[in-house]
Amino acid sequence: MSRADRRSMMQGVATPPVVILSAAKEPKRGHASFAPLRMTILCFAALALVSCRNESADAYGNFEATEVTVAAEVGGRLLSFALEEGDRVARNTVVGVVDTIPLLLERQALAARRAAAAARARETDANIGALEVQRTIADRELAR
Known about the structure:
Blueprint: H1 3-11, H2 35-51, E1 78-81, E2 96-98, H3 101-143
Antiparallel strand pairs: 1-2
C-alpha cells in the first residue's frame, strides 16, 4: 500500500486501487527501450532467411543482341519521337519528326541568292554590251 492509500484509510475515505494493464513494462528512468532494436534485428533475420533459398539456375550463357544505329537523313530539332528502348520497328517506318522550318528557310535563302546571282549575270551582260558600243565609238573617233 502506498502512503496515499494509508492516509485515505485513516481519514475514513476509501479510494479504489489503481490497476495498470500493459503488455510491456515501462522503461526505467535513464534506460532506453530496446523495442526498435529488436524489430530491426527481427527484420534482418527474416530477410536473411528469405534470401537463402537453394535454387539453381535454369540456363547459363551469354546473351547477344544486334545493335542498330538509327540516324536521321537531315539534321534539326526533333519534334516527336515515339519509341522507347527495346521497341521493335519495321523497315522504312517513320519513328520521329524533325523540324523542317529551318531547312525551308535555308532553301528559300539559297533560291534568293541564286536569283540575285542570275540578275547580276544579266546585268553584267548588259554592261558588256554597253562597253562594246562605247569601244566602237571610241575606235571611230580615234580613226578620224
